[in-house]
Specification:
- The radius of gyration is 20 Å and the shape is globular.
- It is α/β, with parallel strands linked by helices and about 400 residues long.
- A 7-stranded parallel sheet has the order 5-4-3-6-11-12-13, with helices on both faces.
- The protein has helices at about 15-35, 50-65, 85-100, 115-130, 185-195, 200-210, 240-265, 280, 285-300, 305-320, 340-355, 360, 365-375; strands at about 5-10, 10, 45, 70-75, 105-110, 135-140, 145, 155, 165-170, 175-180, 215-225, 265-270, 330-335.
- It has a single domain, classed as 3-Layer(aba) Sandwich (Rossmann fold).
- α2 (about 50-65) links the parallel β3 and β4 (about 70-75).
- It binds nicotinamide-adenine-dinucleotide.
- Nicotinamide-adenine-dinucleotide (NAD) binds near residues 111, 112, 141 and 274.
- Nicotinamide-adenine-dinucleotide binds next to α2, β4, β11 and α8.
Length: about 400
């Protein structure tokens, strides 16, 4: 099969196995070139392991620290007629690279919100990972969740809270910049978004892992969050998704108390910078914000992607051997370079000027697009996209 990108709106519906392999290998190479100075995790569970920040976490743990990893993902398998989703190919490439180095890696393609997936994970930890994990990374990005207690499926909404919000947005197909309006969410939509992207499922994971006795003494867990500043606030931090992230903070406090008491363990929310991932490209304001942010941070030499952010989180914070640096709410902040006042001021100045006629000139949309295609394994010079490739890996 010849596999070419097929873009529908903010998603690419095809993925290239060889390109995804390169995408994973690039991140492995980064980690190998930045070996940690201190000891790190040994047995790691990554919930949402196949793309973006979760994939990078798994790579950092396995190739930085030689950790055994168990990953949970929700990906489409390949068939004779259709390529798999990118996360499937990423995971296959990750597993092959780990096997080549004799590092244990197992992945479950299952709905992480279900209790069945949790039970399966517990079995693998007990039977194949020596009985306990010492790091649990929670990195799900999902538009819906079925509550295992009630069977009700909730959908999240990207909506404003209170008043409608109008913002510039970039159509990544046509390169047109135009205004779009986020309508205010109803109370039910806010509650449903919290149900999906809030902290309830993270708590449920920790409760069930703890009850099964598969968390090690001193276990650490972290969930990822985004806060942002003025430009993104009305559509992120101050919107429905921001409410869900507040609920992750709430859950973190509860998990922290539980783990501290039971296992001398700890829980932290890690706030990461905005990066190009499948989840972020679905948020209306993000492609334009990121196209500008990438340009401004690249000029300063401070731009980072998933692997730099997460490897930094492990080596400089969670496993540095020193005290964690936390904000006033007890969160780890890896987003500070994005939020530097002069970075935000420059992003805002460009934001105010940008329109369809000057978007290529004022922003680094070219880099945004390159990174977007790389998520699906496209745009690598070392891959021959004209060549027939077997979609079944
Ligand atoms: P992503 O879309 O790249 O990856 C999401 C992962 O979740 C994939 O591995 C997918 O398979 C998995 N997943 C989704 N639904 C699942 C389900 N039901 N069962 C099992 N696995 C499932 O997302 P991302 O951008 O890396 O986001 C991960 C976390 O990081 C989110 O909490 C997000 O809010 C946070 N974050 C993202 C950014 C950003 O700019 N992308 C910034 C800061 C924080």
């Amino acid at each position: 099969m010849i596999i070419k990108p097929k873009v529908r709106g903010f998603i690419c519906t095809t993925a290239h196995p060889k390109g995804c392999k390169v995408h994973v290998e690039e991140q492995i190479d980064y980690v190998k070139a930045h070996k940690p100075a201190s000891a790190g995790p040994k047995n790691v569970l990554v919930i949402g392991c196949s793309n973006g920040y979760g994939l990078a976490s798994r790579i950092s743990a396995a190739f930085g620290y030689g950790a055994n990893t168990l990953g949970v993902m929700f990906e489409k398998e390949p068939s004779e007629k259709r390529p798999a989703s990118a996360g499937w190919y990423n995971t296959k490439a990750f597993e092959a690279a780990a096997a080549a180095e004799g590092v244990f890696a197992k992945s479950l393609n299952a709905d992480a919100f279900s209790d069945e997936a949790k039970a399966q994970v517990i079995d693998v930890i007990k039977n194949e990972m020596g009985g306990k994990v010492d790091l649990v990374v929670y990195s799900l990005g999902s538009p819906r969740r079925t509550d295992p207690e009630t069977g009700v499926t909730y959908s999240s909404s990207l909506k404003a809270i209170g008043e409608p919000v109008t913002r510039k947005s970039l159509n990544t197909d046509t390169k047109e910049v135009s205004d779009f309006t986020l309508e205010p969410a109803t109370d039910e939509e806010i509650a449903n978004t919290v149900k999906v992207m809030g902290g309830e499922d993270w708590e449920r994971w920790i409760d069930q892992l703890s009850a099964a006795g598969v968390l090690a003494e001193g276990v650490q867990t972290t969930a990822y969050s985004y806060i942002g500043k003025d430009l993104t606030w009305p559509i992120y931090g101050g919107a429905t998704i921001g409410r869900a992230k507040q609920d992750v903070d709430r859950a973190c406090t509860a998990i922290q108390q539980k783990l501290k008491a039971e296992l001398n363990g700890s829980a932290h929310v890690s706030v990461l910078k905005a990066v190009v991932t499948q989840s972020s490209s679905a948020i209306p304001v993000m492609p334009l914000y990121l196209s500008i942010l990438i340009r401004v941070m690249k000029e300063r030499g401070t731009n980072e992607g998933c692997i730099e952010q997460v490897h930094g989180l492990l080596t400089e914070q969670l496993y540095s051997g020193a005290e964690l640096t936390l904000d006033e709410a007890g969160r780890i902040r890896m987003d500070l370079k994005e939020l530097e006042p002069d970075v935000q001021a420059e992003v805002e100045a460009i934001w105010n000027k940008v329109d369809s006629s000057n978007v290529s000139e004022l922003t680094d949309f070219a880099e945004y697009q390159k990174e977007f295609f790389k998520l699906f394994g496209f745009g690598y010079d070392q891959v021959d996209y004209e060549q027939d490739v077997n979609p079944i890996v």
